[in-house]
Amino acid sequence: MNDTRAALRYAKAILNLAKESTSETSVNEDMLLILQTISENKDLEAMLNSPVIKSSNKIEVLNALFGKKINNISLGLFQLLEENKRIGLLKAIAKKYAIIYDFDKHILEAKVTTAVPITETLEKQVLKKIVDLTGDKANLVNEVDPEILGGFILRVGDVQYDASIANHLNQLRKEFDNQDYVSKL
């Protein structure tokens, strides 16, 4: 629990520093890259959390991975975490930064569940519709679930719209179950 609080404090500090130099969007892209890289590479995550490996070696690895790809503020975070012996918090900090950045910029997370992956054209149409309805931008996450048969389920914030074929079939089944049919035998 203290680690998540510490990660949030670091993330807020980095966001404030990035705002001062108007590079918060660039730093957000860096944090997303860092988060994705660590999440996809379990060996890297284990190395960052290992008490056996020296902090200086961890920083060398991070600089080799991200050195030329990311902003100086993000690189400075590596040094700060090394000084404070908190390099293991890097993944949590990146995740928290992305969350508070989206909140600060009024960017919602929209999740659309479909039976097959959506196309890029359809994704743009969905994002435009979300902006029309809510007035806010959104990051769209597509989840594929063949059990919905067709249609889609859209969740934006705490609002859900279910236009799946499976939902329509369930509603029909409920209607038939509630009717008193008399057998004509």
3D architecture notes:
- By secondary structure, the protein is an alpha+beta fold.
- The protein folds into 2 domains: 102 residues, Peroxidase, domain 1, CATH 1.10.520; 72 residues, Glutaredoxin (3-Layer(aba) Sandwich), CATH 3.40.30.
- The protein contains 8 helices and 4 strands, in the order H-H-H-H-H-H-E-H-E-E-E-H.
- The termini are far apart.
- 19% of the residues are buried.
- The mean pLDDT is 86.
Question: What is the CATH top level name of the largest domain?
Answer: Mainly Alpha
Q: What quaternary form is this?
A: single chain
Radius of gyration: 23 Å
Secondary-structure content class: alpha+beta
Strands of the widest sheet, in order across it, are 2-1-3-4
Tally of strands = 4
User: CATH architecture of the largest domain, please?
Assistant: Orthogonal Bundle
Beta-strand content estimate: 5-15%
Instruction: Enumerate how many helices there are, as a single number.
Output: 8
> Approximately how much helix is present in the residues?
55-70%
User: How many distinct domains?
Assistant: 2
Mean pLDDT value: 86
Topology of helices and strands:
Elements: H1 2-20, H2 24-40, H3 42-49, H4 55-66, H5 72-83, H6 90-104, E1 107-114, H7 120-134, E2 137-144, E3 152-156, E4 159-162, H8 165-178
Parallel strand pairs: 1-2
Antiparallel strand pairs: 1-3, 3-4
